[in-house]
């Protein structure tokens, strides 16, 4: 016990949380803890004295002696009231004097301790003037505080002004200002009135500074709020006016809706900023102005794009194979490649840059294959037809500065798909045009390049859009018509012509059921016999694909539908009844003569619609050495004919031909179907064989066809399109096809059905061709000083029986 302390009797103790009580102060507060309520009840039952002290940690619910400040206030309990329905008790107390808690003598059911009174320490070393100045400073600081804090009660202000005792003044001010309870406790524990007032002045000055800063911040915030409220008020007025002028539709609401939609897109910062700036421009425009229409359409288009909407790929290889097999017969190479693509995506989901180009004649199923791939992957399918497109803006879009401008076909397709990763089919990519408006093929370079298309920028949108997630598939009929830079970006998969057996299966499994349904028939109402279906294929169509075949089947279905509508229960189509349904046979398989003829040779040609067989005819007439070439022949084909004539002249002795034929004979070489342009070097061996046959009057085998380029020395050079050409030979009933020796590896790509029904012979020189193609080879008259040019030998396909020729 210190000198200024006097021991008094025990009394109840209450721990206060976040609150400090000073002497001569009146307080009302609620008590909720059971021990505190019990302590107040004990005080009310006794002499009403109670000791109030603050606890050090506010979070402790049941404090012990070490958790309490030693210095507190002895107070008198004036009133204790429990409100109905409430557990807390409201008390009114009056602080009497400082006290010190010596120890707790009881901790249950309430705290009770031994309390010593504490008397103030007065110091005589402070002059009256200094003390007066300190009091005035404290009162001035309180006045400053009262000016900053609104609604300070007048009785407190008057109480401060009336206080003259420094200790009481410090206690009164500290009890009525907002200080931390730790700071208030420090003032309570100061027993020297002068030092207590000094501490108060320091704390009060700091608090005033903080309040001034807070007031300044509040003023700024309030100013901004007022500006915002003013802007909001004006905008609301504008909305009402605009709504009245626009039949209840407010442009401001529309712009605000645009802003909300843009933020929901979660675009990159630059793109989002650009669209928000466009919204601000739209808000400043008159709703009736043409510019507002352009701006509104632009924003709606951008918001409508599926920026982050993706469909989940189906990566089940077995299910994908079933879908592809169900939709298409054959096409094994294409199906295998698609299964490989799905397998790679299953193992490496983020793989990019796989762009497939399906090349083949019309009607072989390129477009439908792409649709099946989309179904197998579970992706949205969109198709863009590029045939005849000659404007770069069709790909990249038009600048939005023009009224009526729109995005390019790529972005429009993405918008129609509704997802950012559809399967996009670029159809007829080989038929792109080019003129003064630009080169659309060059614009496609960015679209189909995985190193660039992740930030494809349409001229209309002007915001990068990620196309790397799109699976691009292109189609073409003629690979050579595709620009080389574009071709380098794609993987080529060739779809060849269908064989008779493939057409039969496609028609039976797919085309017939499809047309029966489209023409309103049931399966039980129409039955097409197999021999009738084969007759339609052979006698009414001649094509690489099956489009014309489908049209003929549709015609049969329409005829059958008419009969059913007239009362027949079912219709059975037989081979004999086809003429009644489809008319006269258009193509007679036996109409193509396979008889041995002089000067007439079966040649093979490649076209964008598949392989074709064409005959080369040669006539030798008396004349003066004139060479006539007819049949709409191109320059390259004419040069091949001249090369053949020169070769025959150089081999006239060996072939048994008069050496002067080029002087006293006219040569007329003709390729029928003169309205159809023809060109290319692969008819060289055909023309040479026809020429030798005509000059030697030796028949050419009618069941043999040939293809190959000829040189002046008689070598046979390789050609392209062997698969299509062999298919044409098969369709026309050719038994043997002569091909260049260097094309032997290409036989692996020839259809299995073709190889089963057609023999293939390889030739290195034209002499090899003549030896087999001519029915009766010309007699050779070799002079002793002549050196006969070695003739190569034929290589037969396994399982085929042909004479082995070697010289």
Number of helices: 27
How many angstroms separate the termini?
138 Å
* SS-based class: alpha/beta
Largest sheet: spatial strand order: 19-20-18-17-22-25-26
Query: Biggest sheet, open or closed, and with what strands and sense?
Result: 7 strands, mixed
Strand content: 15-25%
Oligomer: single chain
Number of E-type strands: 26
The value of Rg in angstroms is 52 Å
**Percentage of residues assigned to helices:** 40-55%
Mean pLDDT: 83
Q: Overview of this structure, please?
A:
The chain is an alpha/beta fold and 807 residues long. It is 42% helix and 18% strand. The strands form 7 sheets. The chain has a 7-stranded mixed beta sheet. Strands 1-3-4-5-6 form a 5-stranded mixed β-barrel. Strands 8-9-12-7-13 form a 5-stranded parallel beta sheet, with helices on both faces. Strand 10 (456-457) and strand 11 form a beta hairpin. The protein is rod-shaped and about 155 Å long.
